[in-house]
Amino acid sequence: MQNIISVAALSSLLNTKAGQNKTVRVIDCRFSLMDPEYGNKAYLQDHIPGALYANLNVDLSGKIEPGKTGRHPLPLKSDFESKVRHWGINNDDMLVLYDDDTGAYAARAWWMFRWIGHGNAVVLNGGYKAWKTVNQKITQALPNIQQSIFISKAELTQQISADALLAYKGGITDARELIRFVGEKEPIDPIAGHIPGAQCMPFSQNLEEDGKIKSATALKAHFQAQGISDTEATVCYCGSGVTAAHNILCLVHAGFPEPILYPGSWSEWITDPEREIAQGNNESAE
After folding, report:
1. From 29, 200, 236, 238, the catalytic residue
2. Is 200 annotated as catalytic?
3. What is the pLDDT of residues 148-157, one digit of tens each?
4. How far, in Å, CA of 219 to CA of 250, rounded?
């Protein structure tokens, strides 16, 4: 099953498939860490026809518990299921997710739909910028949504807790940039560094210069060069569990075993002073 879709392919689906042999639902995941209201404002200004809006803080994250959770903890699964029903999404719908940044916010939503067993979800390659660049249709009209009876299925994802990670012996990757990984600069979290034993594998390396995700072949070569196992699952984390989903998306797209997400990531790890931290780059594959 595909995990990434091109603008041309989505345009074709919307023009020829919707309402016939499959229902295509588009979800706008635009967001900015610097301006949490940006995404909704941008969505109301214009979006892909038929798209509904999913906000990282409101829809794709749970309640932050200071000193316990990371910056974007997963919501209760039951809460997300209720949200999906509220959006009118059905079990047989094909979901197309996009943002206007690197695709990380869309990848977070992609992972969460797989978390509730919905595997027919894809990320729009190049996102809204790519859509508008080729003058595809946009609109301000809001979709007409009717409550659905969506029923969750078995998870397609894997997770690991901080406690379990302490005893984990497999590969661990950090999706943040090297400067944050080594502890040289930390612009977001109060403590710099990385989880001991992890290697730096910035999610930005999944992208071409134009911001689109690399081909499955190129991604496979990249991950193999990083020493990622093609037989055993790799743990992925980042600052708060968002960009790690981008690495997971690309690993799955490249044919690697379903990676294991540490949802709390670095921002949760550092809430417990007894958890060790590492700095420098001795453990990185870079």
Report:
1. 238
2. no
3. 999 999 999 9
4. 7
